[in-house]
Amino acid sequence: MLDFTHSTHVPHGGNLGEAARRYGIARETWLDLSTGINPNGFPVPPVDAQTWLRLPDDDDDLEAIAAAHYGAARALAVAGTQSAIRMLPAVLPKGRIGIGLLTYGEYAPAFEHAAFFVDRFVTRECADMHGAASFVLEPGKPLPVDLKHLVLVNPNNPGAERFTPEVILGWHKELAMRGGTLVIDEAFIESTPELSVAKFADRDGLIVLRSVGKFFGLAGARVGFVLAGAHVDRAMRYLRGPWSISGPARIVTRSALLDTAWQAQTRIRLAASGERLACLLGQYFAGVQHTSLFCWLRDERASRWQDALARHGIWTRRFEVVRGLRFGLPADEPEWARLAAALDVASQEANGQCVRNQQD
């Protein structure tokens, strides 16, 4: 029997209810930059009302369309990447698994709960934190000899580190020779498809997770895909069960994956927006890292900065294990102007607080 005694809540962005209660600011007035979701997502087409009366059609062409879009041999549709994460421990042999210290927070609890021994790693960008981790993950260097599996988010969330297919496939080869598996979470890779290893997902010991929540802005649809070899696909298909994705969500996701013109335009727009955000934040913080959908910065004053911005109704995502903030993209010019003005005022407030602390 599973033991839920020590189950813990994993914090995520998008928790506007908490922010509204804490600061007494009406929820609808917030500028929510706490997630990395495209604020100008795919224009959802009308859905036939009859769709709500029918059970979802698991035998439609959604998975074939997804496989073609990702360049994979097959695709398993699941209720978001989160659903796949909970299934992974059941399809991997027990062994030591490496998971980033600063990465998406649901992986470590899922494997720890399933009695895997979890080794936390840091990348060379956070090598100064090596004392809090088991090893430093560096391209071109071998993995620890007793490591069975590795989970890698590429680009990393929130650290924004990127890994090339050559580096990833090198680590996969190491693990495959041990009978292990490399799990690649590509939730934020849609803007940079050249980094994807989806086309190699038919290889034994390689599992790729994709999502339509971030780039396509369809987080509410809760649709993701597992790209893997036939054995893992069968196992996870059994665990998933029937009707895991609603009929309307299947229709919307199908449209998004087929609209290559919208995808191409969105890649260009998001690349420019990501650069713009990094430049804006670079006026106030050192070492800003970014993807096309979010910026990450390490700063010991992260808590103070989050609080200062929240007092102006702007919500960001704060991390504690490596102190820093993640900023998502504003949706339009008024939101960009609002963020710029708030940063200017918050900077004065944060610096003033710092001076007061020194005087005290």
Automatic annotation (TrEMBL):
Record key words, sorted: Cobalamin biosynthesis, Lyase, Pyridoxal phosphate
MF GO annotations: threonine-phosphate decarboxylase activity
Required cofactor names: pyridoxal 5'-phosphate
Keyword Transport: no
Domain Aminotransferase class I/classII large: 60-340
E.C. no: 4.1.1.81
Catalysed conversion reaction: O-phospho-L-threonine + H(+) = (R)-1-aminopropan-2-yl phosphate + CO2
Class in the EC hierarchy, top level: lyase
Matching InterPro entries: Aminotransferase_I/II_large, CobD, NHTrfase_class1_PyrdxlP-BS, PyrdxlP-dep_Trfase, PyrdxlP-dep_Trfase_major, PyrdxlP-dep_Trfase_small
Pathway field: Cofactor biosynthesis; adenosylcobalamin biosynthesis
Pfam families: Aminotran_1_2
Function according to Swiss-Prot or TrEMBL: Decarboxylates L-threonine-O-3-phosphate to yield (R)-1-amino-2-propanol O-2-phosphate, the precursor for the linkage between the nucleotide loop and the corrin ring in cobalamin.
PANTHER family tied to this protein: HISTIDINOL-PHOSPHATE AMINOTRANSFERASE-RELATED, THREONINE-PHOSPHATE DECARBOXYLASE
Name listed for the protein in its UniProt record: threonine-phosphate decarboxylase
Source organism (scientific name): Paraburkholderia denitrificans
